Amino acid sequence: MTDYDVLRVFCGPRGGYGNELGVVREGSVLPEREERQAFAAKLGFSETVFVDDPERGVIDIYTPGVRLPFAGYPCVGAAWLLDVPELVTPAGVVGARQDGEFCWIEARAEWAPPRTLKQYPTAAEVDALPVPPPGEWIYAWAWEDESAGRIRARGFPGRGDGIDEDEATGAAAILLTEQLGRALNITQGAGSQLLTAPQPGGWVELGGRVYLER
């Protein structure tokens, strides 16, 4: 069995929740895309990262079904684990920094995979949503406190690959931040926390807490 770490990314203030991420630190043990895709499917996490160069931060990201040029929570988790100033992804170079209990990355919204951002009138309506049938990737959200930038969100990948709901979705948070043009404090899923802030030149910062599960 290939060795891998399991992180929880975008944990809540008390360390709970977060989205589980698989990280294969020695990507060379599975060099082919087909091998990596099969291993990501076997692990069954929303995303799995393969590290191809830990010093330069070169990574490769897979869902159980597809390879992604960029994804938010895998980049935050990998940046925390590798403790590097940047990550190299197929989409581009992702800036990274540690700030106390938070790990931050800086990326561009156009790197994010397509998401349907669907606003609801209240957080209670978002909480009550059933899992939709497979189809488009839906990021359902509502203001909890608009003046404070606090948002309630849930993510439904719609892929039919066994991931009915995504506990914390960094790429969608980046897209929503670009759309709204302001810093956000997002509670997603059962209680994960994502922080964002728009930056000059079309960049968006995305931050959260990361813990090593095993």
UniProtKB/TrEMBL annotation:
GO terms for molecular function: catalytic activity. It comes from the Bacteria. SUPFAM superfamilies: Diaminopimelate epimerase-like. This is Phenazine biosynthesis PhzC/PhzF protein. It comes from Streptomyces davaonensis (strain DSM 101723 / JCM 4913 / KCC S-0913 / 768).
